[in-house]
Amino acid sequence: MKSIAELLDLKGKTAIVTGGAVGIGFGISSRLIEAGANVTIADISQGNLKTAQQKLNSTSRQVAYIQADISKEQDVNKIIKQTLSSFGSIDILINNAGIYPSTLVTDMTLEDFDRVLSVNLKSVFMTTRAIAKQMIKKKKGGKIINITSIDALHPSSAGLAHYDASKHGVWGFTKNVALELAPHNILVNAVAPGGIATPGTQSTQKPGQLPKGVDMRKMLEDFLSRIPMRRMGEPDDIGKAVLFLASDLSSYMTGSQIVVDGGVLLT
Ligand SMILES: NC(=O)c1ccc[n+]([C@@H]2O[C@H](COP(=O)([O-])OP(=O)(O)OC[C@H]3O[C@@H](n4cnc5c(N)ncnc54)[C@H](O)[C@@H]3O)[C@@H](O)[C@H]2O)c1
User: Is 252 part of the annotated catalytic residue set?
Assistant: First the structure.
């Protein structure tokens, strides 16, 4: 039987974290690096990649930084190619990149809807399809972890119809792909965060980001008062749940979604 230290040890494994430069993605990247994995941080923002590089040991050969828009197939291929050339394999895929602009459905344009679905859902299809092929070829199994949201189960506020459609989509995709890839020992699970303090959630509170008719301050106050644990989550709260799913601690789990929300879905 493996010891707890061995179960958590990711040395020799390689992970890709999309949107891994700040917020939840950075929390996940940090824990995977600490557990010994090689990590590719793929992010659309060069500025955020620089911030991540400064926070992590920028000279470490354990981390690759790749600027990429996850909604574009050529960028997905670039991430895979560069990761394979830096580290030789891909064992863990974390589909984390996501956007959550707030717009009432009656004001929502086709472009608004397409953008959210492309970044949050189509990207998950493209990375999974390409990386599952690599994993199957290597015959060593793998882990795919999709960051959904409590909005994959229950709406948290008005203005997020496109977002909620995308996250329900990711959860449905997770379950079907888990079924399909289980015979290859590729385990596919999801983590559904509640309210987590990140640059993304901070920017939704800026004036001009609010949809007409939605009082964001009131909505946030209501949301906070509904959290039984009485605090927003930290990126590391999600990083720890993802580490569990990425490690051998979760050796018999596939097609599951772990809710990490301070109890908010109970209310
Ligand atoms: N923060 C929360 O309260 C919360 C709750 C539930 C679910 N989530 C989910 O967690 C994930 C991360 O959220 P966050 O709050 O950390 O976001 P964030 O905005 O703080 O950080 C997201 C990162 O993803 C990058 N990114 C955005 N679009 C990208 C693209 N097209 N290609 C590559 N990178 C891209 C950004 O540059 C940024 O570095 C998202 O999928 C989000 O839906 C967040």
Answer: no
Alpha carbon distance 238, 243 (integer Å) = 9
Helix (H) or strand (E) holding 188: strand 186-193
Measure 221 CA to ligand 1 centroid, in angstroms. Answer: 22
Q: What is the CA radius of gyration of the chain?
A: 18
- Are the CB atoms for 95 and 125 separated by under 8 Å? no
C-alpha 266 to ligand 1 mean position (Å): 24
CA nearest ligand 1 atom 37, residue: 45
Calculate the average pLDDT of the chain.
95
| pLDDT single digits (tens) 173-191 | 999 999 999 999 999 999 9
Q: Are 227 and 264 in contact (CB under 8 A)?
A: yes
The set of residues, in sequence order, having a beta carbon less than 8 Å from that of 132 and lying 6+ positions away, is 142, 144, 177, 181, 184, 186
The answer, yes or no, to whether any atom of ligand 1 lies below 6 A from the CB of 135, is no
Nearest ligand 1 atom to the CA of 22 is 39
| Burial letters 12-40, b for 16+ CB under 10 A, else e | ebbbbbbbbbbbbbbbbbbbbbebebbbb
User: Which parts of 155-210 fold into alpha helices (H)?
Assistant: 161-181, 199-203
pTM for the full model?
0.97
Nearest Cα residue to atom 40 of ligand 1: 98
Would you list the domain boundaries of the chain?
Answer: 4-266
Contact 90 CB / ligand 1 (< 6 Å): no
Verify whether ligand 1 is closer than 6 Å to residue 23 (CB atom): yes
Nearest 5 degrees, angle CA 120-CA 80-CA 164? 5
CATH number of 4-266: 3.40.50.720
Residue 123 DSSP SS3: helix
